[in-house]
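Hi P.,

Sorry for the delay on this. The queue was packed all week, but I finally got your sequence through. Input first:
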Amino acid sequence: MTPTGTQVLERASLVSGFTVPQLTGAQRHRGVVRARWAVMLALHRRGWSTVQIGRLLGRDHTTIMYGLRRADSGVQAMAALLCDGSD
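Then the structure:
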C-alpha cells in the first residue's frame, strides 16, 4: 500500500523525533529542515508534483525544488524509510 502524504508526515515524525507541526511549521533548525527535505523527496519519488508537496507542507513549490536539490545521502536514506510501504 502506498502511504498518503499525511502518513509520510506521521512516519517522518516517528523517525525524526519532530512533531508534524514542527515539520510543517516555520522552524529552520537543521534537524527539522533535513527531516522536511526527506518528506519532500519521499513524496516526489511517489510522483507528487512540487506544487502538491508545497500545499501539504505549507510552502511554495520553489522551496520544494530547493529542498529536492539539497537532499544528500542521509536525507535520501530517511526518504527511503518514509516510502517503505510496510507498517
